């Protein structure tokens, strides 16, 4: 398809090589191509996202950030599998922060959900999504989209097209039909003559060819990489310490900045006397920001000490806001009207026909992202250019925003993307990136020196973009057999991030409404986004209905799920693997929960006991997962394990509380993260063999954890968990029991 072929002219000549970019019709006629720096001498870019060198090296460009999730290896595997590349020669590079590397694969996959499009329309579709991705600056990591969308809609296609082009180049050189050729380990083979050519010998010729109209994929039975646990590409550097994160950046003549923002979200800086800081050694500047004060110094310790010497005066924010007042306001708001999200059948008539009514109110707290690497960024503004070093989940947006803040064009801004030492959504959305305006201003103040801004751990806690604190009220009416006739729910909305409100159960009459209840606390996406709260609401309430109906929780759920569905399959597998039908050991109980999110269905069965002091001990979590084909089994298991532990940590003890309009937690000392001694000794994870659509894996393991924990606690103690975290409630319950025992004795 020549309309989708772009031969790089001057850019390739400058680089000393030849490159072809699969960038769609939108680029034709504009003279724009891939950046000249993308291909060096002796290298060719085929199909836009893979670069092949004369030495047979294969470089895969990654439009996703490394946050420890192993996405680079999985995406490279998907491309290398279709390319038939020699795996030891495959490496990855971050895609440049350039609109020509906007992730149209993600846009296409998200909208079309990986549905196949007839070849006749494929060019138009690809161009459309390429244009959209560039316009909205789409180079985002989040939503468990990398493998299921970028991998499936992009990397597989790129690898297959590049392989076909290499085969065609060899066919033309030898004068034989392409159908007589095969590929293996980065070579094109002609079995009839015994000849072969390395990919590196063919890359430049292949780059001159038009892009094939449709990719020809390998059959799964022929896979050599996908489905195996090859060593992850990112691990060696992380083990030997050579991996460089944003906080590791060191530049000549670099300055350091410490920041203190208003403790009340929504407040502003009213005044500050810079004299105490400027009198200290190494301090160069005190910078007043709209909602913060910063100190720039030659050393970070100097900046921190000088910042502590200041007495800034902040105004604004809601001093009367507290967690108690917030939840009380939400409870009142849920009694009013909301915006309809689901309206099926007639819940009013169901109430008349029903025999039993069940009503529950749930709430979840603010949660901090609690990444090991605190917020930081390094930037330099000098000689009409702006350079940025740091991790981000939203590279193209960050570049555009920095250009705007610095008063420069996009071409004057250079991004140096780096791995993130944890993120879980913190660096994703624009409203969560409150450090970007700060580093832009500080770079201008420190110019021409580069400046590294590091938030203290206390600042990181105080200025987070937390998982929202939310509430929901759910009501159901049961028939004579205990089956739900209706499901009526209102929940506090989260400003456009609520994609998880639909319930998976077949209930004839449903009314689900979203209720607004604004507040000034900064919130954002947290791992599994809205599924984390809706999973807790739905799976706790369905368990309550099973108990009200005096039915087994597994059987009750199965009767309400479509036969053969992903959720029904993981429900049965988790129940079977956990020994659900057998009695647990003495003093233990089990709870189950299942949630489908990001295209993946997960069921957890959690088995626990309880000490006399009210401290739960989780002995075993059995998980069944249907995510479609598993690309890298070890990484897949690690993702689910990590999600389980993060979900368990949050459910047990994590919460951000507000008093006087300010966050109370200051560090990990008052924000308890799960300790090694609390980790379940057995995490029994099973992936179902599935040819279903690919699903994500970074997040789906989180949502079922909290309800499975609460349901197990109810089975053991009769205490129904309707609010998180659970440890304060269990401690209060144990204290009440001890008090009652002491009183009666």
Portion of residues within helices: 25-40%
Task: Tell me the radius of gyration.
Answer: 28 Å
- CA distance, first residue to last residue: 87 Å
Strands, count? 29
Mean pLDDT: 89
The coarse silhouette is globular
How many separate helices?
20
Largest sheet composition? 7 strands, mixed
Which strand-content bin applies to the residues? 15-25%
Strand order within the widest sheet?
A: 12-13-10-20-17-18-19
- The low-confidence parts are 1-34
Which structural class do you get from the secondary structure elements? Answer: alpha+beta
Textual characterization of the structure:
The chain is an alpha+beta fold and 745 residues long. It has a 7-stranded mixed beta sheet. β17 and β18 form a beta hairpin. The longest helix is centred in the N-terminal third of the chain and has 29 residues, at 146-174. It is globular and about 85 Å long.
Descriptors for this entry?
single chain, 745 residues, alpha+beta, seven-stranded mixed β-sheet, five-stranded mixed β-sheet, 20 helices, 22% strand, disordered N terminus
Q: TL;DR of this structure?
A:
32% of the residues lie in helices and 22% in strands. The protein is of the alpha+beta class and 745 residues long.
How are the SSEs placed, and which strands pair?
Elements: E1 6-7, H1 10-15, E2 20-21, E3 43-46, E4 50-53, E5 58-62, H2 71-83, E6 90-94, H3 104-112, H4 119-135, H5 146-174, E7 181-184, E8 187-190, E9 195-198, H6 199-207, H7 235-240, E10 255-261, E11 267-271, H8 275-278, E12 283-289, E13 292-297, H9 300-309, E14 313-316, H10 323-333, E15 339-344, H11 347-353, E16 356-364, E17 376-382, E18 385-390, H12 395-406, E19 413-417, H13 435-446, E20 451-454, H14 457-462, E21 470-478, E22 484-492, E23 509-515, H15 531-548, H16 553-560, H17 566-578, E24 589-597, E25 600-610, E26 616-626, H18 633-652, E27 658-659, E28 662-663, E29 682-687, H19 705-717, H20 727-744
Parallel strand pairs: 5-6, 10-20, 18-19, 22-23, 26-29
Antiparallel strand pairs: 1-2, 3-4, 4-5, 7-8, 8-9, 10-13, 11-14, 12-13, 15-23, 16-21, 17-18, 17-20, 21-22, 24-25, 25-26, 27-28
Helix pairs in contact: 2-5, 3-4, 3-5, 5-6, 12-13, 15-19
């Amino acid at each position: 398809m020549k309309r989708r072929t772009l031969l790089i002219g001057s850019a390739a000549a400058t680089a000393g090589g030849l490159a072809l970019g699969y960038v769609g019709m939108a680029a034709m006629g504009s003279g724009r191509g891939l950046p000249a720096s993308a291909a060096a001498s002796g290298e060719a870019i085929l199909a836009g996202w893979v670069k092949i060198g004369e030495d047979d090296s294969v470089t895969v460009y990654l439009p996703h950030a490394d946050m420890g999730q192993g996405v680079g290896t999985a995406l490279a595997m998907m491309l290398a599998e279709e390319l038939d590349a020699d795996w030891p020669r495959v490496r990855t590079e971050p895609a440049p922060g350039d609109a020509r590397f906007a992730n149209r694969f993600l846009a296409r996959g998200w909208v079309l959900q990986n549905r196949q499009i007839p070849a006749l329309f494929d060019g138009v579709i690809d161009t459309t999504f390429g244009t959209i991705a560039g316009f909205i600056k789409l180079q985002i990591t989040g939503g468990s989209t990398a493998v299921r969308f970028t991998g499936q809609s992009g990397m597989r296609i790129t690898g297959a097209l590049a392989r076909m082009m290499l085969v065609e180049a060899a066919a033309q050189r030898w004068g034989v039909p392409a159908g007589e050729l095969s590929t293996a380990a980065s070579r094109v083979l002609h079995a009839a003559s015994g000849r072969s050519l390395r990919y590196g010998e063919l890359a430049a010729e292949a780059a001159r060819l038009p892009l094939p109209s449709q990719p020809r994929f390998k059959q799964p039975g022929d896979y050599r990489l996908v489905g195996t646990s090859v060593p992850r590409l990112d691990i060696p550097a992380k083990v030997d310490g050579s991996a460089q994160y944003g906080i590791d950046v060191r530049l000549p003549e670099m300055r350091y900045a410490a920041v203190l923002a208003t403790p009340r979200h929504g407040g502003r800086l009213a005044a500050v006397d810079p004299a105490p800081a400027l009198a200290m050694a190494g301090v160069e500047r005190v910078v007043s920001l709209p909602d913060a004060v910063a100190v720039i110094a030659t050393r970070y310790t100097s900046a921190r000490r000088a910042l502590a010497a200041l007495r800034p005066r902040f105004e604004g924010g809601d001093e009367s806001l507290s967690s108690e007042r917030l939840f009380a306001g939400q409870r009142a708001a849920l009694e009013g009207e909301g915006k309809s999200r689901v309206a099926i059948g007639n819940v009013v008539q169901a109430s008349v026909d029903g025999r039993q009514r069940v009503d529950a109110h749930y709430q979840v707290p603010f949660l901090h992202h609690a990444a090991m690497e605190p917020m930081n960024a390094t930037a330099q503004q000098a000689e009409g250019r702006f350079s940025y070093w740091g991790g981000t989940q939203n590279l193209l947006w960050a570049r555009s925003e920095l250009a705007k803040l610095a008063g420069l064009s996009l071409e004057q801004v250079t991004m140096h993307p780096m791995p993130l030492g944890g993120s879980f959504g913190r660096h994703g959305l624009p409203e969560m990136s409150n450090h970007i305006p700060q580093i832009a201003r500080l770079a201008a103040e420190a110019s021409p020196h580069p400046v590294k801004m590091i938030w203290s751990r206390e600042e990181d806690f105080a200025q987070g973009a937390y998982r929202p604190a939310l509430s929901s009220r759910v009501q159901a009416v049961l028939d004579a057999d205990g089956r739900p006739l209706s499901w009526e729910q209102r929940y506090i909305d989260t400003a456009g991030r609520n994609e998880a409100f639909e319930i998976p159960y077949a209930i004839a009459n449903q009314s689900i409404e979203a209720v607004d209840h604004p507040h000034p606390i900064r919130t954002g996406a947290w791992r599994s986004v809205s599924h984390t709260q809706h999973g807790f609401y739905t799976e706790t309430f369905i368990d309550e209905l099973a108990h009200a109906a005096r039915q087994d929780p597994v059987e009750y759920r199965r009767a309400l799920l479509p036969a053969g569905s992903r959720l029904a399959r993981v429900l049965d597998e988790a129940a079977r693997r956990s020994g659900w039908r057998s009695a647990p050991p003495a003093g233990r109980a089990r709870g189950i929960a299942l949630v489908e999110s990001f295209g993946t269905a997960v069921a957890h069965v959690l088995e626990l006991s309880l000490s006399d002091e009210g401290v739960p001990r989780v002995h075993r979590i059995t998980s069944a997962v249907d995510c479609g084909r598993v690309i890298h089994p070890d990484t897949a298991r690690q993702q689910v394990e990590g999600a389980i532990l993060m979900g368990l940590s949050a459910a047990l003890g994590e919460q951000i509380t507000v008093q006087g309009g300010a966050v109370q937690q200051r560090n990990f000392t008052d924000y308890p993260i799960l300790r090694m001694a609390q980790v379940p000794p057995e995490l029994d994870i099973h992936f179902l063999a599935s040819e279903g659509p690919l699903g994500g894996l970074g997040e789906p393991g989180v949502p079922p954890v909290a309800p499975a924990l609460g349901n197990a606690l109810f089975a053991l103690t009769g205490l129904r968990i309707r609010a998180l975290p659970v440890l304060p409630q269990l401690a209060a319950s144990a204290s009440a029991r001890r008090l009652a025992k002491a009183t009666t004795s």
